[in-house]
Amino acid sequence: MDWGFILERTFSTMFGVEVMVFALAAVGLNVQFGYAGLLNFGQVGFMAAGAYGLGVTINYFQWSFLVGVAFGIVYSILLALILGVPTLRLRADYLAIVTIAASEAIRLFVRWRVMKPVTGASEGIGEFSDPFYDTALNPFNVGQRYEFGPFSYVGRDLWVLLVGWTILIVTVLIVKRLMSSPWGRALKAIREDEDAARALGKNAYSYKLQALAFGGVIGGVAGMLQVIQKGSIQPDTFNPVITFTIWAILILGGPGRTWSPIVGSMIYWTLVSFLENVLRGLPEGPADTLEDTIGLSEFNVSQVRFILVGVGLLLLARYRPQGIFGSREEMALDDR
Amino acid sequence: MLGLLAAMLATVVGSTASAQEGEDNGSSGESASELAIFGQLDFEDPDSAEDVPAVGVVIDVEGVGQVETDQNGEFRIEVPGAGDYVVSLDVETLPEGVNLRNPDANPLESSVSENRDRRVLFPLVFGEAEENTTGAISFRRVAQLTVEGLKLGLYLAMAAIGLTLIFGTTGLVNFAQAELVTWGMLTTYFFNFYGLAGVLGFLAPLPPPFGGGVNLIWAAAFGMVCGGLLGYVLNRFIFRPARGAGVSLIAQMVMTIGLSILLRYLFVYIFGGGPRTFGDYSAQRAWVIGPVELTPKDIVAMLLSVIILVGVATYLELTRMGKAMRAVSDDRELAESTGIDVERVITWVWVSGAALAAASGVFFGLDQVKWDFGFRILLLVFASVTLGGLGRPYGALVGALVVGLTINLSTLLIDAEVKNMIALLIMALILMFRPQGILGRKERIG
């Protein structure tokens, strides 16, 4: 077994694109769930709104990249309004049901063959990300591989990473600042006791709607960064498992804490990458044993990850709903 | 249940190999190791009303080659490996007067999975191809869509009642309900092909029902028992301890989501990603009844589901346990104070809810067996339950019928591909204007 290779891959994952994208999406979910107590089970829908806002604007309307980003954000806000307006006055679980359903409906809609000229239907959108890489701001050579100690990335990814991590850190700092502002404190008060907050004259409905939209926009930006790195938008990558992975990451880190999305995302992806690389890199003997006993082959290795997400969510929600580093005081997995 | 899963895991290699033998009876004999695309072409002769094979029709698989159909109208093209292929039928070579029923479905995109030959269908008709566009509203189409809507609604109702009963008695929205549907479908598939224990490779030589496969009807009964069993296990070992430990409802909801994705990916791990069909009654010709076409299995399944639903209603109305379920649904504390053993009621709700979901999975499986089937109808189940009012069993029944009919009839006006989005629309509207559901009582749910 090539441990050097496995460790190099694992280390590179630690600050890689997946960690960044999922951490950012989890920051959005943290605003919605961690601070405002909203059960958004459709975060992937917001990612899709951002991604398609960007792709459709550039590819179909032939407008510029920055306008595309603006549209991605507008779409995310619109989605939040569509989901939030009918549900946020109701009990918390209605939002959960509607968001999970809506995120699937969005996927069905963009891959509808009638939408082919606009969204590319099941083939998705290919050409839209070039302006991001061709900009004069990009200091890296897109094709070259850069190595820093155990970390190794292609120049193209490095540019995405530089932009993405900057956005991520800035967003986390903004969220941190916001949550200690009067707005954030009102939000947490609503999470803790909506009736009490309303009795003090806070418009809980409006606060929750704002939190849903704000978290949705962060999710939308995460979606944009993801498709920019891939260079293409595929409708089927926006499936509900992504949402549940984001939930696992957030609960792993601890909901309602500033840095928890980043910590959770790093832990999750490092574990997944290490496990997958070990399983894929197994020498003949043990690999054959595994294939004979539990039918593990290179075709279903990637499913092991999702099985683990499921087990992880189940156990965390049961035994440590406050996350690994969370505190019971900030625990948001509580009845309201 | 974990033991059974482990057993299935242990023999997954052997079972997928023998699944292939079970699947394509006859045609694969000498070349079992090669993957192929196969099928049979025939059409109904209008004079004799008998099926006539279409001989000498050229079928082409892009990048692989072409063959002609033989005396029985059968064809078989070996393909180099799993993947997506484009299959086309040369219309010029069809017998005179025969046309494709759906000319748009030629060429077909068809994906061949790892260990299984792929059947492709080109339905043929004698005479002109049927009009099948969204614009034309004819009595025939309305009637056909109504019947199909009823069918969908009946099957959905069984899954939805389980969900709404669990919610009513425990306050928990069970996102894993979809996987209970798939579980029923898959266990039935396994019993249908391997019998009670044939999944364990070394027990396969035993006679049915232990080793070999059993008829689908028996398999479906076993499947429902397995459904109830899983419901019991989930409640007894996961959710009852969680309730006891004071885990909040929202945390429990996240637990059901974890459970849902755990089960779903275990299913695809064991079962593979491709769609399959049950061993019996898979290719039936539709009966024409008045303006409506229905296969015999659909008729039987619809009748059975009506019987099951009437049974459920009778149970809820007349038996002690049924009354207790409704009482706990209405007001848990009040029910408890009148001496009802709430935990016992909840156990029965999980068992019967899961068994009903499994039955729904079996009926849906008559068309297609797939690892993520339940998840794909989850939206419809939620829409049904919300429409009827969360926690109201009769509401779920009415809601499911309305959802089934609405989304099928909606294809008169909109593209069938996005018909499921109608369910979301229904849900948004009902939440905006009557959040307690059509049968729910007006109470504070804010």
Task: Give me the secondary-structure topology.
The complex is a heterodimer of chains A (336) and B (446).
Chain A: H1 3-14, H2 17-35, H3 43-59, H4 65-87, H5 92-110, H6 116-119, H7 130-134, E1 145-148, E2 151-154, H8 155-179, H9 182-192, H10 194-199, H11 204-230, H12 240-253, H13 260-280, H14 284-294, H15 301-319
Antiparallel strand pairs in A: 1-2
Chain B: H1 2-10, H2 12-23, E1 36-40, E2 42-44, E3 51-53, E4 58-61, E5 65-68, E6 74-78, E7 83-89, E8 98-100, E9 108-112, E10 118-119, E11 124-126, H3 139-170, H4 177-194, H5 216-244, H6 249-271, E12 287-289, E13 292-294, H7 296-318, H8 320-330, H9 332-337, H10 342-365, H11 373-388, H12 393-409, H13 420-433
Parallel strand pairs in B: 1-10
Antiparallel strand pairs in B: 1-6, 2-3, 4-5, 4-7, 7-9, 8-11, 12-13
Helix pairs in contact in B: 3-7, 3-8, 3-10, 3-11, 3-12, 4-5, 4-6, 4-10, 4-11, 5-10, 7-8, 8-10, 11-12, 11-13
Descriptive notes:
The complex is a heterodimer of chains A (336) and B (446). Chain A is mainly alpha-helical and 336 residues long. Chain A contains 15 helices and two strands. Chain A has helices spanning 3-14, 17-35, 43-59, 65-87, 92-110, 116-119, 130-134, 155-179, 182-192, 194-199, 204-230, 240-253, 260-280, 284-294, 301-319; strands spanning 145-148, 151-154. The longest helix of chain B is centred in the middle third of the chain and has 32 residues, at 139-170. In chain B, helix 4 runs antiparallel to helix 5, helix 4 packs across helix 11 and helix 11 packs parallel to helix 13. Chain B has helices at 2-10, 12-23, 139-170, 177-194, 216-244, 249-271, 296-318, 320-330, 332-337, 342-365, 373-388, 393-409, 420-433, and strands spanning 36-40, 42-44, 51-53, 58-61, 65-68, 74-78, 83-89, 98-100, 108-112, 118-119, 124-126, 287-289, 292-294. Chain B is of the alpha+beta class and 446 residues long. In chain B, the strands form five sheets. Chain B has a four-stranded antiparallel sheet with strand order 5-4-7-9, with no helix packed on it. In chain B, strands 6-1-10 form a three-stranded mixed sheet, with no helix packed on it. At the A-B interface, helix 4, helix 5, helix 12, helix 14 and helix 15 of A face helix 6, helix 11 and helix 13 of B.
